[in-house]
Amino acid sequence: MKSTEKESADEKKPAGSGSIEVMLAQTYDPVKHDPSGWLMSEKMDGVRCYWNGSCLYTRTGGIINAPKEWKAQLPKMALDGELWTGRDDFQNIVSIVRHKTPDPDDWKSIKFMIFDAPLIKGTFAERLVKIAEELAKEPNDVVKTIK
Questions:
Q1: Is 7 helix (H, G, I), strand (E, B) or coil?
Q2: I need a surface site. Which of 48, 87, 107, 121 has the fewest CB within 10 A?
Q3: What is the rounded distance in angstroms from the CA atom of residue 123 to the CA atom of residue 108?
Q4: Is the pLDDT higher at 142 or at 19?
Q5: For this structure, is 43 an active site residue?
């Protein structure tokens, strides 16, 4: 997403029982795209999710059952990101997240890697600043922004 692009909460449309439409990765073509002024991040190989401030959802609106202790470490603001355990660990993260009854010990290895705060008004770059400010209030090992 271009760092100067405006995308406000007013432009987002609900897409499920607690979810919203989220930004999706696009393919970079050096012939078609000039990356000047764009913000990019590593592609995480985890489970995409949306936190509405109290519940976790898949990008299609399904509920993700996380332990209460784990969710208690998340801020009360809506966040879009990826549940991630590490590189080359996709099958493990999927198996943990799919459990209807979450295992708190399994969830200790999961980080919520934040891409965006889609309900905050402003440019993408401005929203990243707001995320950093919010996470600095109560730092922990669960929530991280993608650099």
A1: coil
A2: 87
A3: 33
A4: 142
A5: yes
